[in-house]
Design a protein that fits this description.
The complex is a heterodimer.
Chain A: E1 4-13, E2 16-26, E3 31-35, H1 42-50, E4 57-62, E5 65-66, E6 77-80, H2 92-102, H3 107-120, H4 136-148, E7 154-158, H5 166-183, E8 186-191, H6 194-200, E9 203-208, E10 211-216, H7 218-223, H8 228-233, E11 240-249, E12 252-257, E13 262-264, E14 276-281, E15 287-289, E16 295-304, E17 309-315, E18 318-324, E19 335-339, E20 346-348
Parallel strand pairs in A: 3-8, 3-9, 6-7, 7-8
Antiparallel strand pairs in A: 1-2, 1-4, 4-5, 9-10, 11-12, 11-14, 12-13, 14-20, 15-19, 16-17, 16-19, 17-18
Helix pairs in contact in A: 2-3, 2-4
Chain B: H1 2-33, H2 37-40, H3 55-63, H4 66-97, H5 103-113, H6 119-129, H7 138-162, H8 166-175, H9 179-190, H10 192-207, H11 211-216, H12 225-229, H13 240-265
Classes of the chains: A alpha+beta, B mainly alpha.
């Protein structure tokens, strides 16, 4: 196993930059998830770590050694592709043993490695089959098996679950997590699915438009998103954003929303009086209150999810969502009262950057 | 139900008519080759002569230079097929996978070479090969045929490589293969249908080429069989029986060759490689 360090790593095609100054230290045994919308550069970054894309600028080191110019075969990393990329003319066993055969390992070593991997992945009955005779989930397992037989320095995953149906995806997600706990292998995992990112990662790297937006544990990103992009990307249903103006009085800041409603932050925010800000609150943190408290909101739409209910609300022309596991709300209609708990409010400045709670 | 049946019958019927049309000349070739000379003009148009003979075959094998022509053709056609397949698979792979300076210039040049009628090139090519001692030699023919077939075969191979997902060789390279090993062990086996098609196409083209063989070769020693067929045409008569017998025998290697490669031509080898 190994650590991976990226120092201001960049990539451009001609004059067109696709990745800018990525700094990231991945510790031995960490599970890093690169997450972001399509085209944000996360797959390119992964392929640069693998050696499949050239690095235009910066340094990539594996175990403290610069590997910028090392060929993929010499980096000793394994990768699971979105398409699985199984060799169609080889059996499952041959697919899994290909890397070991290239390294001229003895037959005993190969058989033992393939045997233990196939047992771990439940592939024993399929070892003699060709990939085309396997289901999607089984192919996915073979791709994982091919990676683990080698005991590489690190595992790279390029959206490995996105071709599976929802149920299988959930199952494989747990399996990947279990495997990581068992093998303790340094892993870099690319996905656009924030649930996968939240559930698997020891640290998430949120990316957008070729640059890193925030690096942190899943809960850090959820509780303290660094900017509007991360706030909006992490969490489902997405965070509510309400625009307004900061108003300072007696050391306590208030936000006056565009519809005139005043939301007290209960603390002082060190920004100029009258500055444009964005108020953020997650739907699950909006509280349905008894009448007489909070503000009155019109119920526009009710979306039951089984686990709970998503209400689409409008307050004086400003729409936002509420998520609750309270089934009584499923009958909600007309008007309800809601409050926005101060401890759950996020404030972003006019550039979309989080105004930190400590920023006094 | 009956509609479907009628459709099937019409479909098969149409195919049958086409096959009959396509194979009739071959049948005629066979028929004339076994017709004794005295019956050829005397019996009128018949589907099969009243008396058949293998005399023409005996004569061609024993008394003509045809075995030499045959051997020469086999050497030229298989060497050309082999050389073209090697060059075009490497070049096709490069065109399919790499971005390099001048790539589109090369593609354009290759296309341009396909635009001229070959007759125009006979004289210059003769002029080029003659000082090199490559006229009247099988090597010269192989070089010329290879040069003419490589561009088309390269485009053919490129389209087969395009059909193979890039992920496969990337996976192989991460597994520890060099690019060439990945090409040899992963990509080439999956391109067998393409290789078979290229081999078949080039082999038949070289096997039946007449123009350059006629212009570059003089004398029987290095003549190929299409040139050899012309020896059955004399100033005053054409010996159809012997010519057709030679023609039938010339079909054999081409048929064998296609029998050999046909299973690769129809195989969908990439099934199951990636999602789908």
């Amino acid at each position: 196993m190994a650590s991976i360090e990226l120092h201001s790593v960049g990539k451009s095609y001609g004059d067109h930059p696709v990745l800018e100054g990525v700094d990231l230290n991945i510790d031995d045994g960490e599970f890093i998830v690169l997450v972001g919308p399509s085209g944000c550069g996360k797959s390119t970054l992964l392929r640069m770590i693998a050696g499949l894309e050239d690095i235009t600028s910066g340094t990539l080191a594996i175990d403290g050694q610069r590997v910028n110019d090392l060929k993929p075969k010499d980096r000793d990393i394994a990768m699971v592709f979105q398409s699985y990329a199984l060799y169609p003319h080889m059996s499952v066993a041959e697919n899994m043993s290909y890397s070991l055969r290239l390294r001229r390992k003895s037959k005993e070593v190969i058989d033992a490695a393939v045997g233990s991997a196939s047992q771990k992945l439940g592939l024993d009955p399929y070892l003699a089959r060709r990939p085309k005779a396997l289901s999607g989930g089984q192919r996915q397992r073979v791709a994982m098996g091919r990676a683990i037989v080698r005991k590489p320095k690190a595992f790279l995953f390029d959206e490995p679950l996105s071709n599976l149906d929802a149920r299988l995806r959930e199952q494989m997600r747990a399996e990947i997590k279990r495997m990581h706990a068992e093998l303790g292998a340094t892993s870099v995992y690319v996905t656009h699915d924030q649930i996968e990112a939240m559930t698997l990662a020891s640290r998430i790297v949120a990316m957008n438009a070729g640059s890193v937006q925030q690096i942190g544990s899943p809960l850090e990103l959820y509780d303290r998103p660094a900017n509007l992009f991360v706030a909006g990307f992490i969490g489902s249903p997405g965070m509510n954003f309400l625009e307004g103006r900061l108003s300072q009085s007696n050391g306590v800041s208030e936000i006056v929303l565009s519809n005139g409603i005043q939301v007290s932050l209960g603390r002082h925010v060190a920004r100029a009086d009258g500055e444009m800000v964005t108020l953020g609150i997650r739907p699950e943190h909006v509280v349905a209150a008894s009448s007489g408290t909070g503000v009155e909101a019109q119920v526009e739409l009710v979306e039951p999810t089984g686990l709970g209910v998503i209400l689409h609300l409008v307050v004086h022309g400003e729409s936002f969502k509420l998520f609750s596991t309270d089934r009584m709300l499923m009958q909600a209609q007309g008007a309800i009262h809601v409050t926005l708990p101060q401890s759950r409010l996020h404030v972003f400045d006019k550039d979309g950057v989080r105004i930190s709670e400590d920023d006094v | 139900m009956t509609g479907k049946l009628i459709g099937t019958i019409a479909h098969r019927g149409a195919i049958l008519v086409y096959i009959a049309f396509a194979l009739f000349p071959l049948f005629w070739l066979l028929k004339v080759s076994v017709t004794p000379n005295d019956l050829l003009y005397s019996e009128g148009v018949r589907l099969w002569p009243s008396r058949s003979t293998f005399d023409h075959y005996h004569f061609v094998i024993e008394n003509s230079a045809f075995p030499t022509f045959f051997k020469n053709s086999l050497i030229v056609a298989s060497s050309t097929a082999f050389a073209v397949t090697v060059f075009s698979s490497l070049a096709g792979y490069a065109l399919s996978r790499f971005r390099f300076r001048g790539k589109y210039v090369i593609i354009a040049l290759m296309l341009i070479t396909q635009m001229f009628p070959l007759v125009m090139l006979v004289a210059p090519i003769f002029k080029m090969l003659s000082p090199l001692g490559l006229t009247n030699s099988l090597t010269g023919l192989v070089i010329v045929y290879t040069a003419f077939n490589v561009p088309f075969a390269t485009f053919l191979m490129q389209s087969f490589f395009d059909g193979i997902p890039k992920d496969l060789e990337e996976a192989a390279m991460i597994d520890g293969a060099s690019r060439f090993t990945a090409f040899r062990q992963i990509i080439l086996p999956l391109t067998l249908p393409g290789i078979a098609a290229t081999l078949g196409f080039v082999f038949t083209a070289a096997w039946s080429e007449l123009l350059f063989a006629l212009m570059l070769i003089s004398g029987n020693a290095s003549a190929t069989f299409p040139v050899g067929l012309l020896t059955f045409v004399s100033k005053f008569s054409v010996d159809f029986g012997q010519m057709m017998a030679a023609g039938v025998m010339a079909l054999i290697p081409a048929c064998l060759f296609f029998l050999l490669i046909q299973r690769y031509l129809v195989q969908g080898l990439t099934a199951g490689a990636v999602k789908g």
